[in-house]
Amino acid sequence: MSAHLMSLHRCCQRSALLLVARRPWSSSSASPPPLHTRLLLFLTQRFYDMEMLLSWSSQLKRRVIQRKNAYYSYAQRFHGSDIAAAYYVLNLKGGFRFVGLSAWFRANHRGKFNWDFLNHKDTPLEEVDMSYSVINYTGLVNLEGQRSLRTLSFRGCPEVDDWFLAKLHMFQDSLEELDISHCPRITTGGLAALRNLKGLRRLDISSLPGISSPGLIIILLEEMLPQCQITASGYNLSLSQEEKMEQMQEQRKGQS
Amino acid sequence: MLACRRLHANVRTARGLLSSGPVTGQHPGPRGSTVPRQSLHTGSSLRNDFYKDLEAQLAAVRKKAAEALPGSGWSPFELNPDLPPERADIVIVGGGVVGWSIAYWLKQKERVQGEVKVVVVEKDPTYTQASTVLSAGGIRQQFSLPENILLSLASADFMRNVNEHLGVMNEDPVDLQFNHSGYLFLASEKAAHIMEQNYSTQRYAGAKVSLLSPTQLKEKFPWINSDGVALASYGLENEGWFDPWTLLNAFRKKAISMGVIQCCGEVTDFKYTVNVATTPEGENVALKRIKSVKVQMPNSLEYQPVECAIVVNAAGAFSSKLAQMMGIGSGPKGTMAGTPLPVEPRKRFVYVFHCPDGPGLDTPFLVDYSGVYFRREGLGGNYIAGASPDEAEEPDISNLDVDHSFFEEKIWPPLAHRVPAFEKLKVTSAWAGFYDYNTFDQNGIIGIHPLVNNMYLATGFSGHGLQHSPAVGRAVAELILDGGFKTLDLSGFNFKRILNQEPMLERNIV
Ligand SMILES: Cc1cc2nc3c(=O)[nH]c(=O)nc-3n(C[C@H](O)[C@H](O)[C@H](O)COP(=O)(O)OP(=O)(O)OC[C@H]3O[C@@H](n4cnc5c(N)ncnc54)[C@H](O)[C@@H]3O)c2cc1C
């Protein structure tokens, strides 16, 4: 009786498995060993397959971002660092303005852009708008040579993180305006790195989901960059007000 | 990219086919899609509860029968389930950040999954005495030796991409709570030329450091009293502090997820074979080879010998005790066998204090030429400070008690001199930890011991082991699996320098 049931059970299982074994994502179907070893192999590896798939897809995504942010050495060598920087900005669907020119060069939403910028060889960039682009830490090297950059916007950039902010010190002599609002990966630890940007006049840190106690942070930032006007909207200020009070009370306790 | 999308679509259809119930308790994957995880037999719609019950009963019967068979693992005595395995390829002694980093990198570098069987033995899973969790958590590039600078750069790079290295599927991403606040070293007239030399070494190695005159210093940090400062060097990138616990845990979790076996117990002895060889100078030396490691279980007399091919000594401040078990340092003085591992525990105090008027968000990790250091801790006006005592006044190391007079006498005066706001402060707590102090030259000792040809050393980091752990782990894994350093040449840090009395002196020791 039980043996009979067992075979039935196995049969059911096998039919279920067969359905699966036809899926092209099985890694074990490449070589043709007998069916049952194949199934066994498949069973043991099935779980890893899913994990592998997931990790592959995120790896692939990472690689695409990394490729977009590669160092434009070819453009650097043949057109100089200014054109390379401009080309990089446009490729990431950003926009920029050359020093001494009023017109902005921008890529349209499909990533197409006008090649006229090639006519402005050796003109540094003054304003760069990279908002909602995939610029990251490695991509920033393409802007490294820009000594006249006054305005930078990284609003809503998913790859901008604390390490990125720490690298912005390379613009410390010229940068006056910085927009890092809506960047999901920025935390308090990165905002401390803005201390090097002593020439900053305007800073937008609105809606950063990664920072805790924004009220206190705004005060500390104002203290650290006294010349700078700080915009910080999108925070529940009543809450941060409360936190501020708590903080002050704590400080008083510490003093007494 | 396209192929990848198609695969995803397939996964989705597969879910529709296989599982009838909703998928619960899962985090969405990186692309926001959930993926079926349950095994096939809960999902098949062809079966009903009757078969399920039957199956469970049958499984129970089968299990009982198998257990009763002679030659099975079953015995009437209960075995300790935490015992380490009887055999392993590599045993890492010490589950601090260095030990777990090595374990991770060994797994990372293996070519086939499960190629090397790695066991990490840690005597104290709560880490009450481990240096890792008692450290100040700082990382800097401002060293005088190129090796140390490169180790820091490589480790910073690792931490920047920490989630690519240590992210575990279906777990929250690792957040090291890195504070990008930089280190600020102050030099007096006497040491300014050394600072300049160090600066050029650091720039040459690729570190982003800048020199500040006293005026520039005052301009940048108005809260500093620049009296007596001749030169300052200030790190712009890759410097700051982070949470040591998070790094240790991330290494541990990732390594375990990759198949490293964690075991709680103390290594108390080794079994080894001895071969006598003669050096060209005519000296007879005993070459040893470890056969097995004796792991004593906590709070019991039970122990387990673990046969292994390679042992890694990453026991931090107490690594020389392990070396002694192998007879290292017990031979006649002046011979190879008589040279001990020069690593000893040195107690260092860290004081937490509160000062509401102290410096703010721009506070770096400041290291004064008096040896006193401090940094910010959180945002609420809290700071931590410490200093290394004079060689002659090393505190007793039998416990981790804190000497509060040390703060009053040695730390506060120079601290308040440097930052006048600190004249008014209140110490709120304090702790002590052991430096894994290398008395020979205050640098790590990395590589094989010349007399024990399967014991690798990774110890003696003297107050900068935490920040170097990612790169050191990679280096040791390369030594073991590739037979030599591949990415960073750390051969200068091997044990031979101690035998040859050629110190690699690091001048920036905090
Ligand atoms: C106060 C203080 C401040 C510091 N600040 C910094 C800093 O700012 N930056 C920095 O980079 N570094 C710092 N350090 C140094 C750093 O903490 C150490 O260099 C580093 O943690 C060493 O790691 P480890 O894994 O080798 O040692 P540990 O973390 O000590 O780990 C060794 C482990 O081995 C175990 N063990 C020992 N013997 C045995 C045995 N026989 N069997 C089984 N297990 C055993 C121990 O229980 C321990 O858990 C500081 C240290 C101290 C004390």
Automatic annotation (TrEMBL), chain A:
Interacts with incompletely assembled mitochondrial NADH:ubiquinone oxidoreductase complex (complex I). This is Distal membrane-arm assembly complex protein 2. Belongs to the ATP synthase subunit s family. It comes from Pleuronectes platessa. Required for the assembly of the mitochondrial NADH:ubiquinone oxidoreductase complex (complex I). Involved in the assembly of the distal region of complex I.
TrEMBL record, chain B:
GO terms for cellular component: mitochondrial inner membrane. InterPro entries: FAD-dep_OxRdtase, FAD/NAD-bd_sf. Coiled coil: none annotated. The keyword Oxidoreductase applies. Its cofactor is FAD. Required for the assembly of the mitochondrial membrane respiratory chain NADH dehydrogenase (Complex I). Involved in mid-late stages of complex I assembly. This is FAD-dependent oxidoreductase domain-containing protein 1. It comes from Pleuronectes platessa (European plaice).
